[in-house]
Fold this protein.
Amino acid sequence: MLIKKLDIRAKTPIAIIGDGCSALSLASKAASLPNHSINIFSSQNNEIKNDHVWGYWDMHWMNAVAPLTIKTWHKWIIQTSNSKTVMHSRHHPYKAVKRKNWMAHCKAIAQKHDVTFHTSLTKIDKLKCAQIFDSRPPKFRPGMMVQHFIGWEVQAPPGSFNQETAILMDFRCDQSRGVHFIYCLPFSDSKALIESTVFSTTIEPNSFYEAAITNWLSDCAGIQNFKVIKTEQGAIPLGFMERHDLKFNGIGSNCGAIRPSSGYAFSFIQKQISNAILQSSSTKKRLIFVNPHKKIDLLMDRIFLSVLRNQPKMAPKIFGCLANCLTGDEFANFLSGEAGIKLRLKIIAAMPLWPFVQALFKLEEIPK
Ligand SMILES: Cc1cc2nc3c(=O)[nH]c(=O)nc-3n(C[C@H](O)[C@H](O)[C@H](O)COP(=O)(O)OP(=O)(O)OC[C@H]3O[C@@H](n4cnc5c(N)ncnc54)[C@H](O)[C@@H]3O)c2cc1C
């Protein structure tokens, strides 16, 4: 016991403000940071009331998540009113994990490795931490594009869903409020998560998304008879944001982890943490979290977001072209930030030129 206490004291204390995805994901890696003692500070009761699903493409930095995944799809669909592309992936299937499962798993590992959880921020100064990382959300800018959605997990009669194939985007829904698509993750032939997702600057009333899900179930999936067993809801900012508090370095979405053009964050948070740990253990230096996206991806996303903001009606065509020109593995690599120059050129060549040229003149400012 005495040896254990001395051991903790010899370590450099670091603090994380917040106990969400990035904070607990880092805490679960405490064993890889033998020279640090990790302190998590959360002033809020962060019990997750509503669980939700994280979708991601399997990549090497996601190995720790794999045992907790609830479903894996090697096929997925991008559908518009006049095209349907079924994409196949050999190496990078799409996977789903429940937030509650991942958070509980991380917390259990963290506690085993002496991570300390504090319920008040006041002690943060007393601890004299060598580094403080802030995981509170970055500053939302009025007028920003937001990915807003409501999801229903539904139970329907057996045979209602094709559980082998996820539907990542189905644009056969009301396109009058912005870029709008249905996302459907079939967990079995009778159970699926169906989300109505909109990219725009204005959140819609709940009835809008709920009507979209009901209409899609009946008109596109042929399902009238279903029961809603769980719901989830979110609004993820799309674009470039300032840190929550410039005094502190960020981690997670407060360090640029949300992909500006897609809202995917979970995989990028794991990538950001893996890279920081690798860097600090190879150089024996301080932990440094950096934006996990390549500069070229951020530039492409900035142009892409400008197209989606100014010409939302082009979205079905653009995503249709993207799906048509890529294999499943290429699509997964591109959306996970792993595209090389050849893949990027392939994507650029497949896009309709004019909306992208126009978008170049309407790019959003990037906060310093
Ligand atoms: C319903 C839903 C579905 C999603 N689906 C996906 C998906 O399929 N794939 C994907 O990649 N991403 C998805 N995301 C996005 C992703 O979950 C989040 O972006 C991710 O949780 C961000 O992690 P984080 O650590 O940066 O922030 P969070 O997990 O939000 O943690 C922030 C922490 O800061 C604390 N905090 C906030 N404000 C304050 C304050 N003022 N004072 C003190 N503490 C504060 C919170 O209590 C929390 O502990 C989804 C998000 C939602 C909401």
In short: The radius of gyration is 21 Å. The CA atoms of residues 61 and 271 lie 6 Å apart.
